[in-house]
Design goal:
This protein is of the alpha/beta class. The protein folds into three domains: about 50 residues, no CATH class; about 350 residues, 3-Layer(aba) Sandwich (Alkaline Phosphatase, subunit A), CATH 3.40.720; about 60 residues, no CATH class. It contains twelve helices and 18 strands. The strands form six sheets. The protein has an eight-stranded mixed beta sheet with strand order 8-5-9-1-10-13-4-14, with helices on both faces. A two-stranded antiparallel sheet has the order 2-3. A two-stranded antiparallel sheet has the order 6-7.
Length: about 475
């Protein structure tokens, strides 16, 4: 296993005050001054080589609630009535790949994607399964009461921000427009023990709103950036250099977070990326004038500007009975049925947004270097329940990958005849995590130190080499 180290230091004389500040900020990762000094003894070329990056960015489209694979990407038209979808499969632009008739536009872009039809795990509750999906680490318990604590692993994007951050004025990790919760806030949406400095730039504003803006990136009236920076420098002097290597963990994280905020606050490039008014009205209409649709426009603009990891949440809740909002948890409440709900909202919005988004990335030359991950925390039961709906089913479901080094027009793995369990090449969320990091050029065997200073690999699965082009 590779321990996280900071390359580029070749003598102790190069440890400037700025470097020492970084050491203070990275102590949560176990990157302390003695470890940096020890790294000096490594001979040139002695470090384990990292995988060659195929993706510059990742856009994680999180489908909270659990979409039905049987009704979208892994239909079973030859199964009996109690398993088969009421929708019919149609051919797509990829030979041998069929999708639901309710996704005719999605069918036209299947030549751009890989479907993993053998995703599998055992978590039946939304919060525990979502934590698994958002981090690639199995939760300690499968319990609806799972709470966010420092014992739990960080989000994908926070790991990327810690190990392979971008330089300059842009954030490495941006997430919006929701915080997901099923009762309690769903774990796995932030940096956890890595420290607050690696939290995402979290934007809880509706990109479809007419007044969408980021006032949190605006300076207070009458305060120039130079004046604000001067205040910050004065605060640092008052803090005293003697405490430089002895910050409390929380303070250390806040200090680095504050530094990031100052940089972003002065960034015209970031403000420009968030300015959706720069987009042609007709293109925005094609994406759909919805929170999710305009969120995808924003995702494209962010990776175009250079942001490395973007998470777009489909909804802040698991859903249920609404036909105009909410997540994919439509397995029947109060004598409601899933099909009127998904037919009016979930499938139409997916059919509109996903193909426009993938085509837009491709036409701009961004898809080859941007890995798109479309997934929920689990799928739905192949067998219909008494309300003609489908319940939670983590044992076999589908994840969609596009771009960023993934094969095009390809299916990996397979479910059995009813879609109950993997029949070939099972893939766990741990394996997907290893694959995502590998495609970003980050060795999935890399370790970080948890809050108890114990090493934790950033991914505990194996790279799914079969999906890589």
């Amino acid at each position: 296993m590779n321990s996280f180290a900071c390359p580029g230091f070749h003598s102790a004389e190069k440890f400037s005050r700025r470097t020492l500040l970084k050491v203070g900020g990275l102590g949560m990762l176990g990157l302390t001054l003695p470890k940096l000094l020890a790294a000096e003894s490594l001979a040139p070329g002695s470090a384990v080589s990292m995988p060659k990056a195929k993706a510059k960015s990742v856009i994680f489209l999180y489908q909270f609630g659990g979409p039905s694979q049987i009704d979208m990407f892994d239909m079973k038209p030859d199964a009996s009535d109690k398993y088969r979808s009421p929708h019919k499969p149609i051919s797509s632009s990829a030979d041998g790949i069929q999708v639901s008739e309710r996704l005719p536009d999605v069918a036209k872009v299947m030549d751009k994607v890989t479907l993993i039809r053998s995703m599998t795990h055992k978590m039946l509750n939304h919060n525990s399964a979502s934590y698994y999906a958002l981090t690639g680490h199995a939760p300690p318990v499968d319990d609806i009461r799972l709470r966010d604590t420092l014992d739990l692993a960080p989000a994908y994007g926070s790991v990327v921000d810690a190990l392979a951050p971008i330089s300059g004025e842009l954030p490495t990790f941006v997430a919006y427009p929701h915080v997901c919760r099923d009762g309690a806030i769903t774990p796995g949406q932030h940096a956890s023990f890595l420290g607050k400095q690696h939290d995402p730039l979290l934007v809880l504003r509706d990109p479809n709103a007419a007044d969408f803006s980021l006032p949190e990136l605006s300076l207070p009236n009458g305060v120039s950036f130079e004046r604000l920076t001067a205040r910050r420098e004065l605060q640092k002097m008052i803090d005293g250099q003697s405490r430089l290597l002895d910050y409390a963990s929380a303070a250390r994280g806040m200090d680095a977070y504050y530094e990031k905020a100052l940089t972003m606050l002065h960034s015209d490039k970031l403000r420009s990326a968030f300015d959706l008014s720069k987009e042609p009205e007709k293109l925005r209409d094609r994406y759909g004038r919805t929170t999710y649709g305009q969120g995808l426009v924003l995702a494209r603009r962010l990776v175009e500007a250079g942001v490395k990891f973007v998470t777009v949440y489909f909804s802040d809740n698991i859903g249920g009975q609404s036909t105009d909002s909410g997540g994919w948890d439509t397995h029947g409440f109060n004598n409601t049925h899933m099909y009127p709900i998904v037919e009016k909202y979930h499938l139409p919005i997916t059919n509109q947004t996903l193909p426009v988004f993938l085509n837009d990335l491709d036409e701009r030359g961004l898809l080859d270097t941007t890995l798109v991950v479309w997934m929920g925390e689990f799928g739905r039961t192949p067998e219909l329940n008494k309300q003609t709906s489908r319940d939670h089913w983590p044992h076999c479901y589908t994840t969609l990958l596009a771009g960023g080094g993934a094969k095009r027009g390809f299916v990996y793995g397979a479910s059995d005849k009813q879609g109950m369990y993997p029949a070939d090449k099972p893939v766990r969320p741990d394996d997907l995590a290893a694959t995502v990091f590998h495609l970003l050029g980050i060795d999935p065997r890399t370790e970080v130190m948890n809050h108890q200073q114990r090493p934790l690999p950033i991914a505990e699965g194996e790279v799914v080499s079969g999906v890589i082009a």
